[in-house]
Amino acid sequence: MRKKALVTALAFVLAIGISGMALAAGHDWSRPLVIRHDLGETVLTKQPQRVVVFDFGALETLDRLGVPVVGLPKQGLPSYLAKYQGNEYANVGSLTEPAFERVYAARPDLIIISGRQQAMYEEFVAIAPTIYVSVDYNRYVDSFVENVRTLATIFGKEEQAEAELSAILRAVAEVRAKAEEKAGPALIVLHNEGRISAYGARSRFGIIHDELGFPVVDPGIVVSTHGQSVTFEYVLDKNPEYLFVVDRTAAIGGQGAAKATIENDLVKMTKAYQNGNIVYLDPAVWYLSGGGLISVAQMVEEVRAALE
Predict the structure, then answer these.
(1) Looking at the DSSP assignment, which residues form a beta bridge with residue 186?
(2) Does residue 223 sit within a domain?
(3) Is 143 within the bounds of a domain?
(4) What backbone phi and psi angles, to 5 degrees, belong to 259?
(5) 156: phi > 0 → left, psi -120 to 50 → alpha, else beta; which?
(6) What is the pLDDT of residue 251?
(7) Which residues pair with 278 in a beta bridge?
(8) How many domains does the chain have?
């Protein structure tokens, strides 16, 4: 089983690499570049020089590829992107409440948005060409790759992007093969002010199951943006061998107390606790960001560490 999984995954990596070779030449800006996304089509007539970005995954991808931006929402910015708190970058509101007058004042020639702003798409389009780059949780890795390639094509960073993607996809293949060999059923929970909610396959954190190979302890978990509200009795009843924890309270600047809440008398009776397999994931990566070259690489490595 392990050999078959690894061969299949590596074949996918090879396919990604081969298709990426076609991008190496870059776009010829003597003609328009048409970007097709879930909210429509965006036509770019020149390579953007003034980018405003409302998605932290896209921001970190641009950062990794060496593409400058002029504005972003600074509230809730992950610590590994702290340099963008600097005064040289315009603060254009928050992820959920854009300050459109500040966006306009930044004079962008490209705006990048994702799920939290999709209802305001037309308002952004009225200011500048706008593209939508949200990750599809039903096909996390595929949509992540597509988003990275879209940005790489726009900014002429195809070769660098393919090198980054190849490394990440190889890591995904390795972790999946290892998980399919040795990992038991897993449960993912989000901690928020003493309460927990569960996430399963094809959910916000479902990459752990869908792409990295951990079996789902409860296939009946309802897919929801905020997760399925559950109790610690539920956790004990499902008795996962691995328990992955994302601390929303810590992510949004509160007092992180997930461990004290999670490791109570009920959870201490689970296989996950007894075998030392409660994994506290970096909330800045898993909750605030995700879907970018930096965060996805770190997500894969955190899950890999759970198997060591």
Answers:
(1) 216, 242
(2) yes
(3) no
(4) -65, -45
(5) left
(6) 87
(7) 243
(8) 2
